[in-house]
Amino acid sequence: MSPASLPARIVLHVDLDYFYAQCEENLNPALRGKPVVVCVYSGRTGDSGAVSTCNYQARSYGVKAGIQIVRARKLLEAADATFIPMNRPHYEEISTRIMDILEPFGNAFEKAGIDEAYLELTSSINGDFEKAEQIAHEIKQTILKQEQITCTIGVAPNKLLAKIASDYNKPNGLTVIRPEDVKAFLGELQVNRIPGVGSKTEQRLHQLKVERVDQLARLDLSVLQKAFGSNVGNCLYLAARGEDEEPVKGREQPTQVSRIATLKKDTHEISEILPLLEELASSATLKLTQRAMTCKTVSIIAILGDLSIHSKSKTLESPTSEERIIAQASKDLIAQFLKSAQSALVRRVGVKLSGLSNRSGQTDISRFIDQ
DNA sequence: CCCTCGATCAC
DNA sequence: CCTCATATCGAGGG
Description:
The protein is α+β, with helices and mostly antiparallel strands. The chain has 15 helices and 13 strands. It is globular and about 65 Å long.
């Protein structure tokens, strides 16, 4: 700790292991020890769709999130594997209970997804990483005892490093990065271990002869900003040094609601698209009203036969949560898209509602304006 | 500064 | 023949 400074921050990142698949193992304990694959079936043919997540037995056969179910079947044909359709509401329920366990452990708490959260411990333990490690063990025990779910925890001086730490040794792991170890720990890692560096950014970094974080740390800020834009460039520059000041903060309400689905067959006939589009608009609107919110902007997303992604959006004159308005806007947008991209074969369609705000109190200002 | 759209990420 | 949901950024137009 530098003299006359505040105690080092201590942040935990808790990541629930292979979460959906672990929930399914608990629902049916006979599955434990065998490959379990949780799937999103698209409904086109029997096994069309993708793998959402799978347990580690399945991973040992090369199965992972995102691959086609058909491919997972082939990889696992010699194994006694179970394929299960995703049951999101059930996982949400388990997640909520676990988040309720986690929250009291920190001075601040941030849910960062259905299966991950950050906890700020700084002010409660005065920079003591030993204590933080004990608390991490206690958290793991509590979640295991109360929900039979294992997790992996990263303990570090900020959110960025805590996330990298939890990613380092899964499942059922615990990794601590102390301030004095940051440079050595980070330098050795491949750049794709930095959150936000996916395959595209990784490729572009490789073109700059950068593969590991210590190599990234040798690039000037200006070089990174020129290559990746001022914001991303700056983030990469700081990340390479393990620097991150983002506070652990309760998340605001989500700022968008979206629904997407796959058509039975590719088509350019609007009449074959509208029924599904209306369902999606209805479902998204339901979610919106359940949250007691309104939206200002309606978008449609079209994914074509070649998997290219297109979108069209429209900002309304006034915020709404009325299904008829949202459905009509969606129809107008898809019609507009089909006209612009004639002969486009649509594979999937989606509806997105954004520009959300709380509907509390100030319902419909138009009542006071017109008249 | 707002809107639209595509891209990217990560789930 | 490749799911679903969300957030964020940057470019380009106005």
